[in-house]
Specification:
The protein is an alpha/beta fold. It is about 30% helix and about 25% strand. The strands form 3 sheets. The chain has a 5-stranded mixed β-sheet with strand order 1-2-3-4-5, with helices on one face. Strands 6-7-8-9-12 form a 5-stranded mixed β-sheet. A two-stranded antiparallel ribbon has the order 10-11. The structure holds zinc ion.
């Protein structure tokens, strides 16, 4: 599994789109290509020279900075008619797998994990092949943080983080929808001064991009929203926005 990060609106909302490719078949999907002006120049040369065979657009949730580029993407001849796989409220969505079901990208198995709260249509995409595991968490789980509860409750976020995502293998690499680590860790150190939190703080200080550098196992140690059972009687969830 080859994953290429495509930063969007750097210095603004600091979003990430991701290109995920199965090296054997060259089949690929693009996750949350919300700003085609920044995504298409990355994809087009790889489509033209046969490096990738793009089979679908995949969305983590309906917000404009994740799914708001679908219509524009589909207007390019290279992407015309491609399926849009995502939650029910995503722009131009064609396919919404049931919770726990999924699809294949070549040899990569993809599974939809419903994680309603940030939006009710939030889906984390767990991907696995013989080379490793990854989960694309949109605005549900960030390194050292979690998304705001725009359409859900603290109980739903607790289920998403500490039941659904926590059940994934510890070596699953986490690919969030934004680069928020630095801000998240500021809050984390106010709650916990543990070694893993300090390590995350040092990493975020030294690296502009942190996506995919930490696993579900790491999040269980440095993400204060995933330590609620061990460290806090009152979960430190932010109040809903
Ligand atoms: Zn969002």
């Amino acid at each position: 599994m080859h994953i290429q990060s495509i930063p969007m609106w750097v210095g603004g909302s600091n979003n990430y789109a991701y290109l995920v490719m199965d090296e054997g078949s060259r089949e690929a999907v693009v996750v949350d290509p919300a700003n085609p002006e920044e995504v298409v120049p990355v994809l087009k040369p790889q489509l033209l020279d046969g490096t990738i065979n793009l089979t679908a657009i995949v969305n983590t949730h309906h917000h404009w900075d994740h799914a708001g580029g679908n219509e524009k993407m589909l207007a390019y001849p290279e992407f015309e008619g491609k399926p849009v796989i995502g939650g029910k409220d995503c722009e131009r969505v064609t396919t919404t797998p049931k919770n726990g079901e999924g699809f294949k990208i070549g040899d990569i198995s993809v599974k939809a994990l419903y994680t309603p709260c940030h939006t009710q249509d939030s889906i984390c995409w767990f991907m696995e092949d013989s080379t490793g595991r990854a989960v694309f968490t949109g605005d549900t789980l960030f390194h050292g943080g979690c998304g705001r509860f725009f359409e859900g409750t603290a109980e739903e976020m607790h289920t998403a983080l500490n039941k659904t995502l926590a059940a994934l293998p510890d070596d699953t690499k986490v690919y969030p929808g934004h680069e928020y680590t630095k801000a998240n860790v500021k809050f984390a150190v106010s709650v916990s001064q543990s070694e893993p939190v300090k390590k995350l703080e040092a990493f975020a200080e030294a690296n502009k991009e942190t996506q995919g550098k930490f696993t579900i196992g790491d999040e269980k140690k440095h993400n204060v929203f995933m330590m609620v059972d061990v460290c806090c009687s009152d979960p430190p969830f932010p109040s809903s926005a």
